[in-house]
Amino acid sequence: MDYFSSDFKLGILGGGQLGKMMLYETRKWDIYTKVLDSSSEAPSRISCNEFVQGSLLDYETVYNFGKDVDVLTIEIENVNLDALEKLEEEGVKVYPQPKALRIIQNKAKQKLFYVDHEIPTADFQRFAYLSEIEDSIANGGLKLPFVWKVAQFGYDGQGVKIVRSLDDLKGLPAGECITETMIPFKNELAVIVSRNSKGEIKTYPVVEMEFHPEANQVEYVICPARIDKKVAENARSLALKVAEKIGLTGLLAVEMFQTIDDKILVNEVAPRPHNSGHYSIESSYTNQFEQHIRSILGLPLGNTDSKVAGVMVNLVGEEGYTGDVVYKNIEEILAMEGVTPHIYGKAQTRPFRKMGHVTIVNNDLAKARSIAQKVKETIQVISK
Fold it and tell me: Which Gene3D superfamilies is this protein grouped with (predicted)?
């Protein structure tokens, strides 16, 4: 099929910042795009050929949106899968495949998938209702502390909480959830795997993630991860195994723990471009968004190696500020060596909302990390 400057139409479910950055690549190649998002202010609205406002979880909306596209992909996994399955039955190419999304959308199913395929992961328990957790604690079946996760539609740090006492359960959603044993770990790592529709598969280098202690969001992504070569090889091998077992076409971001004794455990996965891969825009030969487009169109996969060391800093709304956004001191970080800010196009800020990111590249990883720290300390996402 001819994708370039042609009648081919690519549909994208979700118009957030991931979709916006995906559209940088489709515009580069003159691929016609159609985007669906619930917000009239979605960042992707200015970059696509067609923009449709509507719910990603409504069957009729998603089905009708997808009927006139040739390939349909996602930038967020919280979408109506019944509609995607119907479109797939009718001949629309849907990547990643709905079958894979069925596993990934629900964290309980995801964990059971790991167990069934002998993929190492933290021990867990599944609960139909939050109240069952209190009963399990009272009966000695579950010990504090543990990690609580909502089963369905958790996203970007939402729906995850460390529970150290019964009081920590107050206010949590009452429905299906899982609890995980807390893992003593050295590092949180991630590997992005790309797999095209012809079965070609590649991994990006292992990255190291540093998280904000309150928001459970990534603050820094460091590539390459500062870990032993053998540990990195094990992480990439395990990520490949996960991707091959799930069998999706597109990108799969595999988040992992490096334990105290250097074992690798899978935490969870995301079937799309991912925050842990943003560094690749400036640092890699082929950035993750271009690789995703290559994957879903069955094009040859690009070189995943890094040209230079990269550190990514997330720009999130400061606590205490809500309203029209201001990027305070952005001029100062632009004067720093190897710094590139990416502003997502969200007009309103609120505490911990992802508003952009900054990539710092340098031949010296330690220097890149040092500059990243200065960036973090300098720029502030506040309101007027």
Answer: 3.40.50.20, ATP-grasp fold, A domain, ATP-grasp fold, B domain
